[in-house]
Design brief:
Shape: elongated
CATH architecture of the largest domain: 3-Layer(aba) Sandwich
GO molecular function, one term: manganese ion binding
Protein name: Leucyl aminopeptidase family protein
Strand content: 15-25%
Distance between the termini: 31 Å
Pfam families: Peptidase_M17, Peptidase_M17_N_1
Keywords: Aminopeptidase, Hydrolase, Manganese, Protease
Family: Belongs to the peptidase M17 family.
CATH class of the largest domain: Alpha Beta
Number of strands: 19
Length: 463
Protein backbone atom coordinates (compact mmCIF):
# COMPACT_ATOMS: atom_id res chain seq x y z
CA UNK A 1 0.00 0.00 0.00
CA UNK A 2 1.08 3.59 -0.60
CA UNK A 3 2.69 5.38 2.36
CA UNK A 4 0.12 7.63 4.02
CA UNK A 5 1.40 7.95 7.56
CA UNK A 6 -0.39 10.18 10.05
CA UNK A 7 1.62 11.80 12.82
CA UNK A 8 1.66 14.71 15.21
CA UNK A 9 4.04 17.60 14.66
CA UNK A 10 7.44 16.96 16.27
CA UNK A 11 7.68 18.06 19.88
CA UNK A 12 8.91 21.63 20.20
CA UNK A 13 7.59 22.71 16.80
CA UNK A 14 6.47 26.37 16.84
CA UNK A 15 2.70 26.29 16.52
CA UNK A 16 -0.19 28.72 16.21
CA UNK A 17 -2.96 28.43 18.82
CA UNK A 18 -6.42 27.07 18.02
CA UNK A 19 -8.73 28.35 20.75
CA UNK A 20 -11.68 26.05 21.54
CA UNK A 21 -14.64 28.10 22.71
CA UNK A 22 -18.18 27.27 23.82
CA UNK A 23 -21.08 29.75 23.98
CA UNK A 24 -20.96 29.51 27.77
CA UNK A 25 -17.31 30.51 27.87
CA UNK A 26 -17.32 32.98 25.01
CA UNK A 27 -17.69 36.19 27.06
CA UNK A 28 -14.73 35.28 29.27
CA UNK A 29 -12.63 34.33 26.25
CA UNK A 30 -13.51 37.55 24.43
CA UNK A 31 -12.60 39.72 27.41
CA UNK A 32 -9.05 38.37 27.30
CA UNK A 33 -8.52 39.30 23.65
CA UNK A 34 -7.07 42.53 22.22
CA UNK A 35 -9.56 45.08 20.95
CA UNK A 36 -8.72 44.26 17.33
CA UNK A 37 -9.56 40.56 17.82
CA UNK A 38 -12.76 41.48 19.66
CA UNK A 39 -13.85 43.64 16.74
CA UNK A 40 -12.85 40.95 14.24
CA UNK A 41 -14.88 38.25 15.98
CA UNK A 42 -17.84 40.59 16.29
CA UNK A 43 -17.66 41.29 12.57
CA UNK A 44 -17.64 37.50 11.96
CA UNK A 45 -20.70 37.06 14.23
CA UNK A 46 -18.71 34.52 16.20
CA UNK A 47 -20.22 33.58 19.57
CA UNK A 48 -18.87 30.06 20.19
CA UNK A 49 -21.55 28.24 18.24
CA UNK A 50 -20.69 25.12 16.29
CA UNK A 51 -19.13 25.93 12.93
CA UNK A 52 -15.95 26.32 10.93
CA UNK A 53 -12.84 27.88 12.46
CA UNK A 54 -12.30 31.63 12.25
CA UNK A 55 -8.75 32.79 11.52
CA UNK A 56 -7.39 35.54 13.78
CA UNK A 57 -5.38 38.39 12.23
CA UNK A 58 -1.96 39.61 13.27
CA UNK A 59 -0.10 42.72 12.23
CA UNK A 60 1.23 42.74 8.70
CA UNK A 61 -1.56 40.56 7.32
CA UNK A 62 -0.33 37.42 9.07
CA UNK A 63 -2.39 34.82 10.92
CA UNK A 64 -1.92 34.80 14.69
CA UNK A 65 -4.13 31.81 15.35
CA UNK A 66 -7.70 30.64 15.02
CA UNK A 67 -10.79 30.07 17.11
CA UNK A 68 -13.25 27.20 16.83
CA UNK A 69 -16.74 27.22 18.28
CA UNK A 70 -17.77 23.89 19.79
CA UNK A 71 -21.43 24.77 20.21
CA UNK A 72 -23.68 24.28 23.20
CA UNK A 73 -23.95 21.07 25.22
CA UNK A 74 -26.54 19.59 22.86
CA UNK A 75 -24.39 20.32 19.80
CA UNK A 76 -21.34 18.81 21.46
CA UNK A 77 -23.25 15.64 22.34
CA UNK A 78 -24.41 15.25 18.73
CA UNK A 79 -21.04 15.78 17.04
CA UNK A 80 -18.17 13.32 16.86
CA UNK A 81 -14.67 14.69 16.27
CA UNK A 82 -15.85 18.31 16.20
CA UNK A 83 -12.29 19.65 16.46
CA UNK A 84 -11.40 17.72 13.31
CA UNK A 85 -13.50 20.23 11.34
CA UNK A 86 -10.71 22.71 11.96
CA UNK A 87 -7.97 20.30 10.91
CA UNK A 88 -9.49 20.06 7.46
CA UNK A 89 -9.87 23.82 7.02
CA UNK A 90 -6.87 25.49 8.63
CA UNK A 91 -3.79 26.52 6.65
CA UNK A 92 -0.93 24.03 6.65
CA UNK A 93 1.62 24.31 9.39
CA UNK A 94 1.63 23.34 13.05
CA UNK A 95 -1.19 24.13 15.48
CA UNK A 96 -1.78 23.61 19.19
CA UNK A 97 -5.05 23.35 21.10
CA UNK A 98 -5.95 25.98 23.68
CA UNK A 99 -8.93 25.46 25.96
CA UNK A 100 -10.21 23.38 28.84
CA UNK A 101 -10.84 19.76 27.78
CA UNK A 102 -11.41 16.58 29.73
CA UNK A 103 -8.91 13.77 29.13
CA UNK A 104 -11.38 11.92 26.90
CA UNK A 105 -12.30 15.07 24.94
CA UNK A 106 -8.60 15.90 24.53
CA UNK A 107 -7.83 12.44 23.16
CA UNK A 108 -10.86 12.56 20.87
CA UNK A 109 -9.71 15.92 19.53
CA UNK A 110 -6.15 14.69 18.96
CA UNK A 111 -7.21 11.42 17.28
CA UNK A 112 -9.81 13.20 15.17
CA UNK A 113 -7.16 15.67 13.98
CA UNK A 114 -4.92 12.80 12.90
CA UNK A 115 -7.74 11.02 11.08
CA UNK A 116 -8.73 14.25 9.34
CA UNK A 117 -5.29 14.19 7.72
CA UNK A 118 -6.10 10.99 5.84
CA UNK A 119 -5.95 11.30 2.05
CA UNK A 120 -6.58 8.53 -0.45
CA UNK A 121 -4.54 10.02 -3.27
CA UNK A 122 -3.12 6.90 -4.91
CA UNK A 123 -4.84 7.80 -8.17
CA UNK A 124 -4.50 11.59 -7.96
CA UNK A 125 -1.65 13.66 -9.32
CA UNK A 126 -2.23 16.58 -6.95
CA UNK A 127 -1.35 16.04 -3.29
CA UNK A 128 -2.94 18.30 -0.68
CA UNK A 129 -0.91 18.90 2.52
CA UNK A 130 -2.68 18.88 5.86
CA UNK A 131 -2.31 21.04 8.97
CA UNK A 132 -0.45 19.28 11.78
CA UNK A 133 -1.22 19.26 15.49
CA UNK A 134 1.25 19.37 18.34
CA UNK A 135 0.11 16.53 20.60
CA UNK A 136 -1.73 18.03 23.58
CA UNK A 137 -0.04 17.65 26.96
CA UNK A 138 -1.09 14.41 28.64
CA UNK A 139 -1.96 12.66 25.39
CA UNK A 140 -0.43 9.24 24.69
CA UNK A 141 0.78 10.41 21.30
CA UNK A 142 2.37 7.13 20.22
CA UNK A 143 -0.78 5.16 21.01
CA UNK A 144 -2.99 7.58 19.07
CA UNK A 145 -0.61 7.50 16.10
CA UNK A 146 -0.71 3.69 16.19
CA UNK A 147 -4.52 3.72 16.16
CA UNK A 148 -4.70 6.33 13.40
CA UNK A 149 -2.25 4.51 11.14
CA UNK A 150 -4.07 1.21 11.63
CA UNK A 151 -7.14 3.05 10.36
CA UNK A 152 -5.09 4.26 7.40
CA UNK A 153 -4.39 0.63 6.50
CA UNK A 154 -8.08 -0.23 6.75
CA UNK A 155 -9.21 2.78 4.71
CA UNK A 156 -6.58 2.28 2.01
CA UNK A 157 -7.54 -1.38 1.56
CA UNK A 158 -11.25 -0.57 1.28
CA UNK A 159 -10.78 2.44 -0.99
CA UNK A 160 -8.60 0.59 -3.50
CA UNK A 161 -10.73 -0.56 -6.46
CA UNK A 162 -11.17 -4.27 -7.05
CA UNK A 163 -9.00 -4.10 -10.16
CA UNK A 164 -6.07 -3.45 -7.80
CA UNK A 165 -7.39 -5.22 -4.69
CA UNK A 166 -8.30 -8.79 -5.55
CA UNK A 167 -7.40 -11.87 -3.52
CA UNK A 168 -3.77 -11.67 -4.72
CA UNK A 169 -3.35 -8.07 -3.60
CA UNK A 170 -5.19 -8.65 -0.31
CA UNK A 171 -2.84 -11.55 0.37
CA UNK A 172 0.15 -9.31 -0.40
CA UNK A 173 -1.10 -6.69 2.08
CA UNK A 174 -1.73 -9.43 4.65
CA UNK A 175 1.81 -10.73 4.24
CA UNK A 176 3.25 -7.21 4.47
CA UNK A 177 1.39 -6.65 7.75
CA UNK A 178 2.72 -9.94 9.11
CA UNK A 179 6.28 -9.18 8.00
CA UNK A 180 6.22 -5.75 9.65
CA UNK A 181 5.44 -7.34 13.03
CA UNK A 182 7.27 -10.65 12.80
CA UNK A 183 4.10 -12.72 12.46
CA UNK A 184 3.75 -16.03 10.62
CA UNK A 185 1.44 -16.51 7.64
CA UNK A 186 0.08 -19.58 5.91
CA UNK A 187 -2.17 -19.52 2.85
CA UNK A 188 -4.42 -22.25 1.46
CA UNK A 189 -5.28 -21.45 -2.14
CA UNK A 190 -7.45 -22.72 -5.00
CA UNK A 191 -8.27 -26.45 -5.11
CA UNK A 192 -6.18 -26.98 -1.98
CA UNK A 193 -9.17 -25.53 -0.15
CA UNK A 194 -11.14 -28.63 -1.09
CA UNK A 195 -8.29 -30.94 -0.18
CA UNK A 196 -8.03 -29.32 3.27
CA UNK A 197 -11.80 -29.16 3.87
CA UNK A 198 -12.83 -25.56 3.22
CA UNK A 199 -15.61 -26.35 0.74
CA UNK A 200 -17.70 -23.20 1.12
CA UNK A 201 -14.78 -20.80 0.65
CA UNK A 202 -13.92 -22.74 -2.50
CA UNK A 203 -17.51 -22.79 -3.77
CA UNK A 204 -17.95 -19.02 -3.44
CA UNK A 205 -14.64 -18.12 -5.06
CA UNK A 206 -14.16 -20.78 -7.71
CA UNK A 207 -15.89 -18.85 -10.52
CA UNK A 208 -13.27 -16.11 -10.52
CA UNK A 209 -9.96 -16.41 -12.37
CA UNK A 210 -8.46 -14.95 -9.18
CA UNK A 211 -8.21 -18.03 -6.98
CA UNK A 212 -9.99 -18.11 -3.60
CA UNK A 213 -7.83 -18.58 -0.54
CA UNK A 214 -7.74 -18.63 3.24
CA UNK A 215 -5.19 -16.31 4.85
CA UNK A 216 -3.99 -17.28 8.32
CA UNK A 217 -1.75 -15.07 10.51
CA UNK A 218 -0.32 -16.02 13.90
CA UNK A 219 1.55 -13.71 16.29
CA UNK A 220 2.54 -13.86 19.94
CA UNK A 221 3.81 -16.71 22.08
CA UNK A 222 2.06 -16.11 25.40
CA UNK A 223 -1.23 -15.03 26.88
CA UNK A 224 -4.86 -15.75 26.02
CA UNK A 225 -5.71 -16.55 22.42
CA UNK A 226 -7.74 -14.02 20.44
CA UNK A 227 -8.92 -15.00 16.97
CA UNK A 228 -10.19 -12.41 14.49
CA UNK A 229 -12.11 -13.49 11.39
CA UNK A 230 -12.75 -10.96 8.62
CA UNK A 231 -14.84 -11.28 5.48
CA UNK A 232 -12.55 -10.79 2.47
CA UNK A 233 -14.92 -10.69 -0.51
CA UNK A 234 -12.83 -8.47 -2.75
CA UNK A 235 -15.73 -7.86 -5.12
CA UNK A 236 -19.29 -9.10 -4.97
CA UNK A 237 -21.32 -9.31 -8.17
CA UNK A 238 -23.96 -11.27 -6.30
CA UNK A 239 -23.05 -14.36 -8.27
CA UNK A 240 -25.83 -15.91 -10.34
CA UNK A 241 -28.30 -13.91 -8.23
CA UNK A 242 -26.72 -10.92 -9.92
CA UNK A 243 -26.89 -7.52 -8.27
CA UNK A 244 -28.22 -4.57 -10.30
CA UNK A 245 -25.50 -2.17 -11.42
CA UNK A 246 -26.38 0.28 -8.64
CA UNK A 247 -25.88 -2.50 -6.10
CA UNK A 248 -22.36 -3.17 -7.34
CA UNK A 249 -21.06 0.39 -7.15
CA UNK A 250 -19.66 0.06 -3.64
CA UNK A 251 -18.83 -3.63 -3.72
CA UNK A 252 -15.10 -3.00 -3.64
CA UNK A 253 -15.80 -2.45 0.07
CA UNK A 254 -17.10 -5.99 0.59
CA UNK A 255 -13.72 -6.93 2.02
CA UNK A 256 -14.19 -4.30 4.73
CA UNK A 257 -14.34 -6.95 7.44
CA UNK A 258 -10.92 -8.22 6.39
CA UNK A 259 -9.56 -4.67 6.21
CA UNK A 260 -10.89 -3.89 9.68
CA UNK A 261 -9.49 -6.97 11.41
CA UNK A 262 -6.15 -6.28 9.71
CA UNK A 263 -6.22 -2.74 11.11
CA UNK A 264 -7.10 -4.11 14.56
CA UNK A 265 -4.29 -6.66 14.27
CA UNK A 266 -1.87 -3.81 13.49
CA UNK A 267 -2.96 -2.06 16.70
CA UNK A 268 -2.58 -5.23 18.78
CA UNK A 269 0.83 -6.14 17.41
CA UNK A 270 2.08 -2.54 17.40
CA UNK A 271 1.10 -2.17 21.05
CA UNK A 272 2.76 -5.48 21.95
CA UNK A 273 -0.27 -6.84 23.82
CA UNK A 274 0.44 -10.07 25.67
CA UNK A 275 -1.91 -12.25 23.69
CA UNK A 276 -1.67 -14.99 21.11
CA UNK A 277 -3.28 -13.48 18.04
CA UNK A 278 -4.71 -15.34 15.08
CA UNK A 279 -6.27 -13.60 12.07
CA UNK A 280 -8.27 -15.56 9.50
CA UNK A 281 -9.38 -13.98 6.23
CA UNK A 282 -11.24 -15.96 3.56
CA UNK A 283 -10.29 -13.95 0.45
CA UNK A 284 -12.50 -14.51 -2.59
CA UNK A 285 -14.22 -12.79 -5.49
CA UNK A 286 -17.89 -13.68 -5.97
CA UNK A 287 -17.93 -13.76 -9.76
CA UNK A 288 -20.09 -15.26 -12.52
CA UNK A 289 -18.97 -18.02 -14.85
CA UNK A 290 -19.94 -21.52 -15.95
CA UNK A 291 -18.80 -23.02 -12.66
CA UNK A 292 -20.49 -20.52 -10.34
CA UNK A 293 -22.27 -22.04 -7.38
CA UNK A 294 -26.04 -22.00 -7.95
CA UNK A 295 -29.27 -21.20 -6.12
CA UNK A 296 -30.57 -24.30 -4.33
CA UNK A 297 -27.17 -25.97 -4.33
CA UNK A 298 -26.49 -27.69 -1.02
CA UNK A 299 -22.99 -27.21 0.37
CA UNK A 300 -21.37 -29.06 3.24
CA UNK A 301 -19.37 -26.81 5.55
CA UNK A 302 -16.10 -27.64 7.25
CA UNK A 303 -17.90 -28.64 10.46
CA UNK A 304 -20.27 -30.97 8.62
CA UNK A 305 -23.39 -28.79 8.62
CA UNK A 306 -25.22 -28.66 5.29
CA UNK A 307 -26.33 -25.34 3.82
CA UNK A 308 -28.98 -24.75 1.16
CA UNK A 309 -28.00 -21.78 -1.01
CA UNK A 310 -31.15 -19.77 -1.48
CA UNK A 311 -29.28 -16.68 -2.65
CA UNK A 312 -25.77 -16.60 -4.09
CA UNK A 313 -25.58 -12.95 -3.00
CA UNK A 314 -25.52 -14.11 0.65
CA UNK A 315 -22.02 -15.43 0.14
CA UNK A 316 -20.20 -13.68 2.97
CA UNK A 317 -21.69 -15.87 5.66
CA UNK A 318 -20.64 -18.95 3.70
CA UNK A 319 -16.94 -18.08 3.59
CA UNK A 320 -17.01 -16.88 7.20
CA UNK A 321 -18.61 -20.15 8.28
CA UNK A 322 -15.67 -22.27 7.14
CA UNK A 323 -13.20 -19.86 8.76
CA UNK A 324 -15.14 -19.82 12.05
CA UNK A 325 -15.30 -23.61 12.04
CA UNK A 326 -11.52 -23.69 11.73
CA UNK A 327 -11.09 -21.07 14.47
CA UNK A 328 -13.05 -22.98 17.12
CA UNK A 329 -11.04 -26.16 16.57
CA UNK A 330 -8.41 -24.73 18.93
CA UNK A 331 -10.85 -23.17 21.45
CA UNK A 332 -9.76 -19.51 21.47
CA UNK A 333 -10.40 -17.41 24.55
CA UNK A 334 -12.15 -14.79 22.41
CA UNK A 335 -13.51 -15.11 18.88
CA UNK A 336 -14.51 -12.06 16.81
CA UNK A 337 -15.98 -11.93 13.31
CA UNK A 338 -16.33 -8.72 11.31
CA UNK A 339 -18.12 -8.45 7.99
CA UNK A 340 -19.94 -6.11 5.65
CA UNK A 341 -22.71 -8.68 5.84
CA UNK A 342 -26.24 -7.30 5.45
CA UNK A 343 -28.13 -4.33 4.11
CA UNK A 344 -30.66 -5.04 6.86
CA UNK A 345 -28.21 -3.70 9.45
CA UNK A 346 -28.05 -0.42 7.54
CA UNK A 347 -31.85 -0.20 7.34
CA UNK A 348 -32.07 -0.74 11.09
CA UNK A 349 -29.24 1.49 12.29
CA UNK A 350 -27.91 3.52 9.37
CA UNK A 351 -24.34 3.74 8.10
CA UNK A 352 -22.74 5.21 11.23
CA UNK A 353 -23.91 2.77 13.91
CA UNK A 354 -22.96 -0.88 13.34
CA UNK A 355 -24.59 -3.64 15.36
CA UNK A 356 -22.75 -6.33 17.22
CA UNK A 357 -24.06 -9.64 18.54
CA UNK A 358 -22.94 -11.68 21.53
CA UNK A 359 -24.44 -13.97 24.15
CA UNK A 360 -21.90 -12.83 26.76
CA UNK A 361 -23.32 -10.05 28.96
CA UNK A 362 -19.94 -8.97 30.32
CA UNK A 363 -18.44 -8.85 26.83
CA UNK A 364 -21.34 -6.70 25.63
CA UNK A 365 -21.09 -4.30 28.55
CA UNK A 366 -17.32 -3.91 28.18
CA UNK A 367 -17.59 -3.33 24.44
CA UNK A 368 -20.39 -0.79 24.81
CA UNK A 369 -18.46 1.20 27.42
CA UNK A 370 -15.29 1.17 25.30
CA UNK A 371 -17.20 2.23 22.18
CA UNK A 372 -18.61 5.25 23.99
CA UNK A 373 -15.25 6.16 25.49
CA UNK A 374 -13.31 6.17 22.21
CA UNK A 375 -16.19 7.50 20.08
CA UNK A 376 -16.38 4.37 17.93
CA UNK A 377 -20.13 3.75 18.17
CA UNK A 378 -21.62 0.27 18.41
CA UNK A 379 -25.07 -1.02 19.25
CA UNK A 380 -25.86 -4.45 20.67
CA UNK A 381 -28.45 -6.48 18.79
CA UNK A 382 -29.83 -9.84 19.96
CA UNK A 383 -29.07 -13.38 18.95
CA UNK A 384 -32.85 -13.91 19.00
CA UNK A 385 -33.34 -17.63 19.53
CA UNK A 386 -36.98 -17.49 18.44
CA UNK A 387 -35.79 -16.75 14.89
CA UNK A 388 -33.70 -19.92 14.65
CA UNK A 389 -36.40 -21.74 12.62
CA UNK A 390 -36.03 -19.05 9.93
CA UNK A 391 -32.55 -20.37 9.05
CA UNK A 392 -33.64 -24.03 8.95
CA UNK A 393 -34.97 -24.82 5.45
CA UNK A 394 -35.89 -28.44 6.06
CA UNK A 395 -33.96 -29.90 3.14
CA UNK A 396 -30.62 -29.02 4.75
CA UNK A 397 -29.39 -28.02 8.19
CA UNK A 398 -29.21 -24.32 7.34
CA UNK A 399 -30.53 -21.74 4.87
CA UNK A 400 -28.07 -19.01 3.83
CA UNK A 401 -30.84 -16.55 2.89
CA UNK A 402 -34.23 -16.99 4.56
CA UNK A 403 -37.19 -15.70 2.55
CA UNK A 404 -39.52 -12.99 3.79
CA UNK A 405 -37.07 -10.13 4.24
CA UNK A 406 -37.52 -9.94 7.99
CA UNK A 407 -34.70 -9.59 10.57
CA UNK A 408 -31.98 -10.05 7.97
CA UNK A 409 -29.08 -8.97 10.16
CA UNK A 410 -30.23 -11.16 13.06
CA UNK A 411 -30.72 -14.27 10.93
CA UNK A 412 -27.27 -13.78 9.38
CA UNK A 413 -25.77 -13.54 12.86
CA UNK A 414 -27.66 -16.65 13.97
CA UNK A 415 -26.27 -18.48 10.94
CA UNK A 416 -22.71 -17.58 11.93
CA UNK A 417 -23.29 -18.54 15.56
CA UNK A 418 -23.89 -22.13 14.40
CA UNK A 419 -20.20 -22.23 13.43
CA UNK A 420 -18.79 -20.52 16.54
CA UNK A 421 -19.35 -23.54 18.77
CA UNK A 422 -18.91 -22.83 22.49
CA UNK A 423 -16.47 -19.96 21.96
CA UNK A 424 -16.83 -16.62 23.71
CA UNK A 425 -17.97 -14.92 20.53
CA UNK A 426 -19.03 -11.58 19.11
CA UNK A 427 -20.04 -10.78 15.54
CA UNK A 428 -19.96 -7.27 14.02
CA UNK A 429 -22.15 -6.42 11.01
CA UNK A 430 -20.24 -3.34 9.81
CA UNK A 431 -20.78 -1.03 6.81
CA UNK A 432 -17.23 0.31 6.23
CA UNK A 433 -18.36 3.19 4.03
CA UNK A 434 -18.83 6.87 4.83
CA UNK A 435 -21.53 8.13 2.43
CA UNK A 436 -20.48 11.80 2.69
CA UNK A 437 -17.69 13.81 4.26
CA UNK A 438 -17.83 14.17 8.04
CA UNK A 439 -15.25 15.35 10.60
CA UNK A 440 -12.30 12.91 10.59
CA UNK A 441 -14.26 10.66 8.22
CA UNK A 442 -13.91 11.57 4.55
CA UNK A 443 -16.29 10.01 2.07
CA UNK A 444 -15.21 6.48 1.26
CA UNK A 445 -13.86 3.48 3.13
CA UNK A 446 -13.76 3.51 6.90
CA UNK A 447 -13.12 1.08 9.75
CA UNK A 448 -15.79 0.44 12.36
CA UNK A 449 -15.50 -1.28 15.72
CA UNK A 450 -11.73 -1.76 15.74
CA UNK A 451 -10.97 1.12 18.14
CA UNK A 452 -13.65 -0.07 20.54
CA UNK A 453 -12.28 -3.61 20.47
CA UNK A 454 -8.71 -2.40 20.97
CA UNK A 455 -9.79 -0.34 23.97
CA UNK A 456 -11.82 -3.21 25.44
CA UNK A 457 -9.42 -6.05 24.72
CA UNK A 458 -7.30 -5.88 27.91
CA UNK A 459 -10.47 -6.20 29.99
CA UNK A 460 -12.06 -8.81 27.72
CA UNK A 461 -9.16 -11.26 28.03
CA UNK A 462 -7.46 -9.91 31.19
CA UNK A 463 -4.05 -9.27 29.66
Amino acid sequence: MAENRLSFAPAGTPARPLFLVTPEGFAEFLARQPEGVQAWLSAQNFTGGSGDPVLLPAEGGQISGAVLGLGDARSRARSRFAVARAAARLPEGAWRLEGELSAEARDEAALGWLLAGYRFDRYRSAKRPAAQLVAPEGTEAARLELIANAEVLTRDLINTPASDMGPDELEAAFRALAFAHGADVTVIRGDDLLAQNFPMIHAVGRASPRAPRLLDLRWGAEGPQVTLVGKGVCFDTGGLDLKPSSGMLNMKKDMGGAATVMGLAQMIMGAGLKIRLRVLVPAVENAVSGNSFRPRDILTARNGLTVEVNNTDAEGRLVLADALALAVEESPDLLISMATLTGAARVALGPDLPPFYTDCADLAATLSAAAQKVRDPLWQMPFWDAYEPMIEPGIADLDNAPSGGMAGSITAALFLRRFAGEARYAHFDIFCHQPSDAPARPKGGIGQGARALFEALPDLVKV
